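Issue: copy button drops trailing tokens. Both records pasted manually instead:
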Amino acid sequence: MEGRSPHFMQTYRAELHVHTVLSPCAAIEMIPPLIVEQALQLGIHLLAITDHNASANASAVIQAARGTPLHILPGMELQTREETHLLCLFDTLDQLNTWQTIVDNHLPNIPNNIDYFGEQFIVDHQGEFIRRENRLLLNSVNLTLQQATAHINNLGGLPIPAHVDRKANGLIETLGLIPPGFEALEISRHLSPESARLKYPQLKDYPLIQSGDVHHIDDFLGSTFLTLTAPTIPEIRLALTSQNGRSLRVTH
């Protein structure tokens, strides 16, 4: 987090796509205290917890980060009916819990096959086991991208399509286009914003963030920098369009 400007802006090094051990594809070391420790070691001060279709570990990471300079946005990575992935970012756990209820009502009740998909652990702020999530999280909910986006916006959250350049679950490969109405898009770690816009001209009019899609403790990227007066969704919205001194910068 860089120093304050005369207008009390702060520049936050951000990682807005981080999984915990609740995601079956995440490594066992992705527990709250290690996530917080690694982020701080890398100078990352704004983090979003975005497990697949789930959010039960977000509060534990928030608790683990208390008393540190690290701010946690509670969130989720949703898999829509079209099999696209959508980052769902919120300011509060209440917003996220309301969203989780909607998602639960649209997630197929299929049991997780641990041997095939991996464990889905709910843990406390120290990373201690609480229980397993038994319903398979790696699945599409019965919500379209448009429906999910409307719900998230109505709750005051920020929907950002994830890794839009990726063949698996990315908008460009899955739908062949970028539907209108999004305030930003996420690109994968494999492209710079400049090369992404050259390769995919449909991205040229969108603010781009970049994330590590962190599933392992060494996946943190921290290439997105947001200049804000506070680490909140309304401030991020202003930064995406460079309003009132707020700004977005991605270094690759």
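Record 2 (pasted manually too):
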Amino acid sequence: MPLYEHVLIARQDLSNTQAEGLIEHFSTVLADNGGKVVESEYWGVRALAYKINKNRKGHYAFLRSDAPSAAVQEMERLARLHDDVMRVLTIKVDEHQAGPSIQMQKRDERDRGDRGDRGDRRGGDRGERNDRGDRGDRGERRERDDRN
């Protein structure tokens, strides 16, 4: 059977349990039509790039499935009819990537507090202070002003 990846965006005013209930609902729709969900992830509430139905945020969910195209079409049809689902994206893939998705990997990095190799913010690797030495001597300026 073909392999698919689905991203669902649900309304922001749902609770987390209701959003995760949508994942279960659409997983059972795929299972009832001869497919199976290999993995599902709840990404949480995230900001949208633009307003959708007057919403600025949405609950994101990610599903990896192994299902016939008829099951995927039925799942998409029901998702588009569902009042809580704002958008659905389905992509056919050659193979599923092992491990968590890129979004979950980014979340893990944020949770660990990994800030990368930023160095010290007060001068960094240069080891010098920013004392505005490029302005020159201000004494000359005062002498010019006194002459005028």
